[in-house]
Amino acid sequence: MLPAIWPSDTLVVERVSADQVKVGEVVLVRRNGRLCAHRIVSREENSGSPDWITQGDAMPMPDPPVKESELLGRVNYVIRDGRCVAMRSKSSVAAKLTTKVVRRSFIAARALVYLHRTIPISAKSETRESVLQCQG
Predict the structure, then answer these.
(1) Are 55 and 61 in contact (CB under 8 A)?
(2) Distance between CA atoms of 69 and 62, rounded to whole angstroms?
(3) Who contacts 46 (Cβ-Cβ below 8 Å, separation ≥6)?
(4) Mean pLDDT in the chain?
């Protein structure tokens, strides 16, 4: 599950072409002058140009289709508290279940965000490979 993005977090985004992004990855898009980082949940082909359907992990409904011109890149890491947290394109069964609960319950979403912010990273269930110390 994608960690909640807070104003103090920094996203590390890799510029990629449209054919390099896949369902399950988190992408950064520009819409109506705003930036949005959401996970790709499906892909559609319209007039030879791909459109992606994105949805925030804690959002109940998907976003409108993302056009190729709106795609800025793929989010590889979130830098939080001096650590780089790698974005996963495949979710565990537990993460998928948590996502379903959070999408249907505002209270569960707020509780999860609170717990995520108060529990130290070292105590979380993330694997060692997904949390790296950032340099600089």
Answers:
(1) yes
(2) 19
(3) 65
(4) 75
The token duo for 129 is 């490979």
Dihedral over alpha carbons 111, 113, 119, 124 (to 10 degrees): 110
Q: How many angstroms separate the CA atoms of 73 and 63, rounded?
A: 17
Instruction: Please report, for the chain, the start and end positions of each structural domain, with discontinuous segments joined by +.
Output: 10-133
Q: Which fold has domain 10-133?
A: Umud Fragment, subunit A (2.10.109)
pLDDT in tens, 46-64: 777 778 999 887 777 888 9
Structure tokens at 73: 């890149």
Give the angle 73-74-78 at the CA atoms, nearest 5°.
120
Q: Give the residue-averaged pLDDT of 5-13.
A: 73
Strand-pair category, 83-86 with 71-80:
antiparallel
The alpha carbon of residue 53 and the mean position of all alpha carbons in its chain are separated, in whole angstroms, by 13
